[in-house]
Amino acid sequence: MSDLFKPSRRAFLRGGAAVAAGSVAGAANAAGPDPLITELQDWESYLGAGVDETPYGLPIRFEQDVVRRNVEWLTASPISSINFTPIHALEGTITPQGCAFERHHSGAIELAKDDFRLMINGLVDKPLVFSYEDIERFPRENHVYFCECAANTGMEWAGAQLNGVQFTHGMIHNMEYTGVPLRTLLAEAGADMSLDKWVYVEGADASSNGRSIPMEKALDDVLVAFKANGEALRMEHGYPVRLVVPGWEGNMWVKWIRRIEVVDRAVESREETSKYTDVYEDGTARKWTWVMDAKSVITSPSPQMPIKHGAGPLVISGLAWSGHGQITRVDVSRNGGITWETARLGKQGDTKALTRFYLDVDWDGAPMLLQARAMDETGYVQPTKDQLREQRGENAVYHNNCIQTWYVNAEGVAENVEVS
Ligand SMILES: Nc1nc2c(c(=O)[nH]1)N[C@H]1C(S)=C(S)[C@@H](COP(=O)(O)O)O[C@H]1N2
Ligand SMILES: [Mo]
């Protein structure tokens, strides 16, 4: 059966290639016969893998470079550390869980659904403990949101540092979450929902990663989520249940949640005082910097994604996002911010989610200083690195949303640089 089909399919492919040969066709139309077209191939001669061999699929081995990576010198131990999403190699907007960055303060824990308990206590009429099955019985919603660690791009404040968008901007992922609005569970417990109240949310891991969230946000769009991209959360993303705090810094997205206490003021835990706070030049701190401001970056070309095809049609591709809502426009500069062209959005951006943008150009083969600049629905425009340093000083670690520059040379090799 399959033998009968193959010759005709090959004939079709050959015809298709001829029709498609336009100005972008390169290697496939090089002079001389192409053995991939003219000769019988190995994979046409053997029987492929059966449907019983891969109960849960992993990427094909040719894609083995599209993986999370960490930077060893960044942290003292891989248990309290971070790795980075390979955003240079991904397209569209959804991050597969298997390569979405991880950030743990005391490692990823293995917590079975049967062992899961979520307590809601404090300023409530009836303190409640929910099992996993209980959570699944409340009306649920689906939303796509980005989660960005406040430290994303944090190594770049003092100058261009890490040569790869995976490392400069890869503390971000974007998934479709399924969960129950936090307000539903608070109502069930008869919580005091006055807007001067807060919720303090803890995880079941050793670090607990406790964070205080003002009631207004808790009642707005926060989800108690149990699925991501259609399947159960992976262990490293908080299985079986995590908090999703749209647009707000990743640290507030408490994983493996075990307790939500309704309190009358912020707890001021370690995670929201000594950490995740930006210190100005004069030593004072920027307090409660929850929302992730609009940001964008070109993912290709970039240091890990050089241009290999030479001059001619070139797809410049990147990501933009804003914790304040929708991305309304992204501009791209090819000359370090002197002139700008408005990019095409892959599709109209979702609120507080990654938006893909493209600039399709005819590259003349000359060196470029590539930049992207995002704008969101509030009218905010992503700042330059110098503008941000002027505002925040040089002590800052978190919330670096400045414009990134890649220098692309005539060979198409890209490098992390700064322009001023
Ligand atoms: N319980 C718990 N929740 C946690 C953390 C943690 O260490 N423990 N890390 C936080 C930080 S700093 C970030 S950036 C996000 C990262 O989520 P991810 O590991 O799914 O990428 O989870 C947050 N939630
Ligand atoms: Mo984080």
CATH superfamily of the largest domain: Oxidoreductase, molybdopterin-binding domain
Radius of gyration: 24 Å
**Which ions, cofactors or small ligands are bound in this entry?**
ligand MTE, molybdenum atom
- Rough shape? globular
Could you tell me the number of beta strands? 23
**Which strands sit side by side, in order, in the main sheet?**
4-3-12-7-8
Mean pLDDT: 93
Order of helices and strands: HHEEEEHEHEHEEHEEEEEEEEEEEEEHEE
- Work out the count of structural domains: 3
Query: Can you tell me the CATH class of the largest domain?
Result: Alpha Beta
Low-confidence stretches: 1-22
Structural class: alpha+beta
The helix content is 10-25%
Describe this structure in words.
By secondary structure, the chain is α+β, with helices and mostly antiparallel strands. The protein folds into three domains: 1-46; 78-286, Alpha-Beta Complex (Sulfite Oxidase, Chain A, domain 2); 295-417, Immunoglobulin-like, CATH 2.60.40. The chain is 13% helix and 28% strand. It has helices at residues 2-20, 35-38, 132-135, 165-169, 182-188, 215-220, 385-392; strands at 81-82, 103-104, 117-122, 128-131, 141-148, 172-181, 198-203, 211-214, 223-228, 231-232, 242-244, 257-263, 278-279, 285-286, 295-300, 312-321, 327-333, 341-342, 344-345, 355-363, 368-376, 405-408, 414-417. The longest helix has 19 residues, at 2-20.
